[in-house]
Design goal:
Elements: H1 2-21, H2 23-33, H3 39-58, H4 66-91, H5 101-124
Helix pairs in contact: 1-3, 1-5, 2-3, 3-4, 4-5
Length: 129
């Protein structure tokens, strides 16, 4: 479970960094292509969720603070699960921004797998090192 936790942490951290690096384009996509108001606010919220959640999963446990570290990682796993579910509904429903059905279904299926992995990490966090 530790490896899965680290892979998920890196996945979300890199996604957040990618949004930072392409901030203008991401805001344009969210606001203009997808038509959401307050695109900057939505993108900033996504960046905070992905970076903070990714770091929380990547950080090692401190033996003296075991229960606090478990709580941190469970909140990160379940929080990222909810974030991913919302993002899937908002941005990956086939045809929302003119993408083809096949292209968006790949994202939907990938996100379902990521959500299942986050669920597994959140449920088993106390059993993993």
């Amino acid at each position: 479970m530790t490896i899965l936790k680290k892979v998920l942490g890196a996945f979300f951290l890199l996604a957040g960094i990618n949004k930072i690096m392409a901030y203008g384009g991401t805001v344009y996509y969210v606001g203009e292509m997808m038509g959401y108001p307050s695109a900057s606010l939505l993108v900033m919220a996504a960046i905070v969720a992905e970076v903070a959640g990714g770091i929380a999963l990547l950080m090692p446990r401190i033996p003296a603070l075991k229960s606090l570290c478990v709580l941190r990682q469970q909140v990160a796993a379940y929080g990222l699960l909810v974030f991913t579910a919302i993002a899937t509904l908002m941005f990956h429903v086939p045809g929302m921004a003119g993408e083809t059905f096949d292209a968006e279904m790949v994202h939907v299926m990938k996100n379902i797998v990521v959500m299942a992995a986050l669920w597994a990490v959140g449920r088993n966090i106390t059993k993993s090192a």
